[in-house]
Give the backbone structure.
Amino acid sequence: MIENGVPLPPTVYPLAKGRVWAMLVGSLVFVALGIVFLVVHSTVKLTVTGAVAVPFFGFCSVIIFQRLLRDRPEMVLDDAGVDHARLGRFGWDEIAAVRIREQRVRSTSQLFIELVLHDPDAYLTRAPKLVRHTASMNARLGFGPATMATNTLLVPPGSVLDAMRRHCPGLAVQH
């Protein structure tokens, strides 16, 4: 958007490295526990748990570590659209609306910013491989393919929505 004849500068959100380091440590702890379960294999249940935990949390650890190594912002908003480190680039014309979603698991909850897309299938054809693979799981949870966790951002999701509306004043916000 142009304010007073001057384009609005990009809004840059760096990666919340402290939180991401904590996620990496947590994943590595689960890998270690899985290894212990495999070595001890006192019950079939523990052995199966270990056999699932080691590759799953090992993969998570690699993905998290790669995010820490990349020296790029988690998200950039500009007058053309949204650029997210994991999801890729979206033009404002691709986004029908935006909303904050909550996923509750037992006593905890996780907030997400969901970009409601005009054509989710078109996005999925160009989306990163990991996003394409997780799209069906997101759909089963009631989320679209362009859903970003807010725990990797240093600001609350409402601030991000406010910045999105500054860059794209006509952006619809669903509640």
